[in-house]
Amino acid sequence: MSLFIPKFDESVVVRDTDAEVVGAAPVAVKLLADSSATGGALSTVRVTLGEGADGARPHLHRNSAEMFFLLDGEARLLSGDDIVTAERGDLVVVPPGKAHAFAAAPGSTADILIVITPGVERFEYFRHLQRIRLGEVTRESLLEVQELYDNHFLQSEAWDRRHQGARRGETVSRASSPAP
Questions:
Q1: In 3-state terms, the chain is what percent helix, strand and coil (to 5)?
Q2: Amino acid 142: pLDDT
Q3: Helix (H/G/I), strand (E/B), else coil: 96
Q4: pTM greater than the 0.90 cutoff
């Protein structure tokens, strides 16, 4: 296994007021640092979800791990076939190749810092999602860019069953440790 050493010479500083925001309530994504800014080390965004809002449907990244840090609120995260409930201050890391999804827990909002490492150019992916929401391109157009963004959608019975059950008020067990 080779060691990945990012190549960038200057610190990356992104001022809150300078960060682009894609979308609006109930789902807003603040674009913080893309792979090109960090020499490929990481990509990071901040996702703010309104009460019970879906963040991402089930997918996986073949080449990158994804870290979710709950800044505030409560979220449900799919990791493989498990659903983890994460609260403010909790950290969940999903390894490459593992199915995952996330949403604000029913009755709660969620503010999540998401880091993908090694980085992938992701800002244009989020802009693409916005164009879908605006009806400028079709949802099917995402299938054409899965490889480009290392974002591969899939079906998850566990997410559909448990996530939808949680929306109806059924209990989803709270993990004592949010490990993936």
A1: 20, 35, 40
A2: 87
A3: coil
A4: no
Tell me what pLDDT residue 177 has: 30
Give residues with Cβ within 8 angstroms of 90, minimum separation 6. Answer: 69, 70, 178
Q: Over the chain (180 residues), what is each successive 10-residue block's mean pLDDT?
A: 63 94 94 94 96 94 97 97 96 97 96 96 92 92 90 92 60 34
- Which two tokens mark 36? 């090109």
Cα gap 60→45, rounded to integer Å: 17
Domains and CATH numbers, the chain: 18-166 (2.60.120.10)
Give the span between the Cα atoms of 7 and 23, in whole angstroms: 31
For the stretch 120-137, what's the b/e string if a residue is b when 16 or more beta carbons lie within 10 angstroms of its beta carbon?
bebbebbebbbeeeeeee
Q: Could you tell me the two tokens for 169?
A: 């008020």
